[in-house]
Amino acid sequence: MTAIDRPEAALTSAPGGLVKSVVELDRVVIRLAGDSGDGMQLTGNRFTAETASFGNDLSTLPNFPAEIRAPTGTLPGVSSFQLHFADHDIM
Fold first, then answer.
1. Is pLDDT above 80 for 63?
2. The whole model's pTM is what?
């Protein structure tokens, strides 16, 4: 299904003459994940601050390993940050 087929999509022009489709969503959930030390918590916090600055309602779920420094590439070493936001009350 293309953006033209969906009634909620709109086409906008971008620099360079490119055409991009814009879809308005009711709510968005984003999960960032990586090894400890990859900056997932920092990235999640910055994304949260930007989302809040636009006046969106949001909920966050940071998840970091219990170990101080788990071996790289192992499941116990995964750090993640989930952000759920919308332009209306989500809780």
1. yes
2. 0.71
